[in-house]
Amino acid sequence: MPSDNDTDERPQMAGRFRGFLPVVVDVETGGFNDRTDALLEIGAAMVEYDDTGQLGLTESISYHVKPFEGANIEPASLAVNGIDPHHPLRPALGENDALGRVFREVRAAVKRNGCKRAVLVGHNAHFDLGFLNAAVERAGIKRNPFHPFSCFDTATLGGVTFGQTVLKKAVLAAGLDWSDDNAHSASYDTEQTARLFCAVVNRFDAWSGNNVLSPDSGTL
Asked: What is the rounded distance in angstroms from the CA atom of residue 105 to the CA atom of residue 44?
């Protein structure tokens, strides 16, 4: 049994990211304009430290999303992501419902880790954050658990750490597996981005020697 003098050797999530919980998000869309183009899929992945002090993927969720009324959908985007937004068997949710389900899981993770807010992690993160914020506005959601403009970008982190900015190349450079057949779905890309983010953080944690971190009350 640990003595009263023993300390918890696990890095504390609230301290590692200054009270913010990184949550990985990937969106598949009908184009590049978050104001006019459809949000078609959204995925979110939670990352947490384990007992050995390694950051890892713990759970992920993803949903098909119904295009909002009047949404633009570019054929070129569908050719890349392979989505048929009007398929009769596609189990799509409205934006309000899909975001509500994602946000419930994010809030639970924020509370579980003693954090005060989530910060979006994405590959070219401002693209995902822009579509997320636009959908929040359209749905009239008042309690968005994500920071409205700060984010962690794995394209930048991958470039700095592994010399690769393309998701597939950065994932492979990190020594992780990649499947071309599964790529360009929110579910797969979210989990791969999460694994890449964890690989970067774990490498920097090892370089810095910071294994025990205390909460910081600062803000992003």
From this structure: 9
Please state, in angstroms and as integers, the Cα–Cα distance from residue 186 to each residue in 13, 26, 189, 193, 210, following that order: 25, 5, 5, 10, 32
Cβ–Cβ under 8 Å, residues 109 and 20? no
84 vs 195: CA distance, rounded Å: 28
Please tell me whether residue 29 adopts helix, strand or coil conformation: strand
d(CA 186, CA 64): 9
Q: pTM value?
A: 0.90
- Pair type for strands 146-153 and 20-29: unpaired
pLDDT digit string (tens) for 34-43? 999 999 999 9
DSSP class of residue 107 equals H
- 87 catalytic? Reply is no
What is the per-residue burial (b if ≥16 Cβ within 10 Å, else e) of 137-161?
ebbeeeebbbeeeebbbbbebbeeb
